[in-house]
Amino acid sequence: MADQLIRATAADGGIRAVGVITTRLTEEARQRHQLSYVATAALGRTMAAGLLMASSMKRAGSRVNVRVKGDGPLAGILVDAGLDGTVRGYVGNPHVELPPNAKGKLDVGGAVGNGFLYVVRDIGYGYPYSSTVELVSGEIGDDVAHYLVSSEQTPSALVLGVFVGATGVTAAGGLLVQVLPKAARDEALVAKLESRVAALSGFTPLLQAGKSLPEIFQDLLGDMGLTVFPESQILRFYCGCSFDRVLGALKMLGEAELQDMIVKDDGAEATCDFCGRVYQASSEQLAQLIVDLQAESSVSG
């Protein structure tokens, strides 16, 4: 099943639901970063959450940055997700592994530890909107739901899942259900929705059982006036890094540092944190950067 995002509404527009399947892009992230089992689950959940949050933005080019900064051995998570369906991300310690938690599942909460969730929403102009909340469990889903309730005052239920085995990621994705202001006063509706989401056995078991996103919506909201939008959005792991950007970053180091790289290393190597791509700059290319800096200095002087 292709990685995709599908939207739906229920209760006369009072409930907003978004589902994502992110199996392939999570597997790509696992391979790019050589992630352990628990690191794969942590990054996969956060990428799915980022895409779900970005889906509510309106302006083309809008993006959400989600940073999980905890004191656990994972050493943090950073995800960048866009309204266009692209996502990228990495963890601080990709090789950490922990025993299963008390429920026999990957111990993402233990790997993340205690700390904070930072969310930055960039709509493409003006100052980005940022907010910080304390981590509730480190399991990502609970933490993002807490953010949505406390920072955006939107009652939200979030179910995230990543199943990774010996052959890699075989199921990943998530479901976000939100009660919008016009329906939030209906306490019976809210309670009914909370009960149904709580009864879910998880998200990846549904995918593994062959359920599609519209079928999952139907099971959850089918008797609440469900409308599933026919358009599906393709999701993919994508990083906009380039060699030109690497050269631009190297140039900012200044003449002395560039000259030192030429003498000591005969060039420079840079690795993109987000996608793991390695860039090599030769001593000749570094020398050209020095020439460019000198020319710019001469003009400005």
Automatic annotation (TrEMBL):
<feature type="disulfide bond" description="Redox-active">
    <location>
        <begin position="239"/>
        <end position="241"/>
    </location>
</feature>
<keyword id="KW-1015">Disulfide bond</keyword>
<comment type="function">
    <text>Redox regulated molecular chaperone. Protects both thermally unfolding and oxidatively damaged proteins from irreversible aggregation. Plays an important role in the bacterial defense system toward oxidative stress.</text>
</comment>
<keyword id="KW-0862">Zinc</keyword>
<keyword id="KW-0676">Redox-active center</keyword>
<keyword id="KW-0963">Cytoplasm</keyword>
<protein>
    <recommendedName>
        <fullName>33 kDa chaperonin</fullName>
    </recommendedName>
</protein>
<feature type="disulfide bond" description="Redox-active">
    <location>
        <begin position="272"/>
        <end position="275"/>
    </location>
</feature>
<dbReference type="InterPro" id="IPR016153">
    <property type="entry name" value="Heat_shock_Hsp33_N"/>
</dbReference>
<dbReference type="Pfam" id="PF01430">
    <property type="entry name" value="HSP33"/>
</dbReference>
<dbReference type="InterPro" id="IPR000397">
    <property type="entry name" value="Heat_shock_Hsp33"/>
</dbReference>
<comment type="similarity">
    <text>Belongs to the HSP33 family.</text>
</comment>
<dbReference type="InterPro" id="IPR016154">
    <property type="entry name" value="Heat_shock_Hsp33_C"/>
</dbReference>
<keyword id="KW-0143">Chaperone</keyword>
